[in-house]
Write a sequence for this structure.
């Protein structure tokens, strides 16, 4: 079973077309799939947009009564998936965004790598990025070096990833508290470090981001993202993980 986890907040314009595209790509494939959406207290009609889709694809919608943020929503999706699965060595969890910034067309290739034995598949962005994102990546490499400890991973901040559930299960058992604790890019980098000790085989594919789609205003802020990366890099648990991973590389 492939579990696809999508945290959303005010994605009325994209979540429906994204779910339909996932259905087109995966329906009738070799593996069954199930989509889990965590609606982080949307107030733009996202809830109503989601209501029609359980009739056309396997979908579970989780809802936060108040806005908790990306990290809490992703953590909830991971734990809900772990609770659903009886076969963590055979099942997978795919994390992706609900605004088409992560191209669903990459899903078949991600699953092909998983079927080939990969425990972790990441989708790294390539090509030009807006200045604020480039600045954040430079700042992360300079001031949050431990978050870059996983060898061979060119984009530790990627949101679009596949994890064999076994790696998340082991990481959740080892975690002291929430598995995803930091916001923004730091959430993805921190989760990567926590699963890395349990990954036997890693693969990475790349994609060129879609042109911006103006369904809503941009939410990325370089200063805020850098602050979260700086805080995560000083998280004692992540510092220890980064040091061990670096020494083993």
């Amino acid at each position: 079973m492939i579990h696809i986890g999508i945290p959303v907040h005010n994605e009325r314009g994209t979540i429906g077309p994204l779910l339909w595209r996932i259905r087109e790509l995966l329906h009738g494939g070799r593996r069954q799939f199930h989509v889990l959406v965590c609606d982080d207290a949307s107030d733009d009609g996202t809830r109503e947009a989601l209501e029609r889709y359980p009739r056309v694809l396997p979908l579970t919608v989780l809802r936060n009564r108040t806005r908790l943020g990306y990290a809490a929503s992703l953590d909830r999706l991971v734990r809900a998936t772990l609770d659903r699965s009886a076969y963590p060595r055979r099942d997978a969890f795919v994390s992706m965004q609900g605004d088409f910034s992560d191209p669903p067309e990459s899903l078949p290739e991600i699953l092909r790598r998983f079927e080939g034995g990969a425990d972790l598949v990441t989708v790294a962005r390539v090509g030009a990025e807006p200045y604020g994102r480039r600045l954040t990546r430079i700042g992360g490499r300079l001031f949050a070096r431990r978050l870059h400890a996983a060898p061979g991973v060119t984009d530790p901040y990627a949101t679009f990833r596949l994890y064999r559930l076994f790696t998340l299960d082991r990481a959740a058992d080892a975690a002291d508290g929430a598995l995803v604790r930091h916001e923004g890019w730091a959430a993805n980098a921190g989760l990567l470090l926590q699963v890395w000790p349990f990954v036997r085989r890693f693969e990475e594919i790349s994609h060129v981001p879609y042109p911006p789609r103006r369904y809503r205003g941009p939410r990325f802020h370089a200063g805020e993202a850098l602050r979260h990366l700086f805080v995560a890099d000083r998280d004692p648990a992540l510092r220890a993980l980064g040091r061990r991973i670096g020494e083993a590389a």
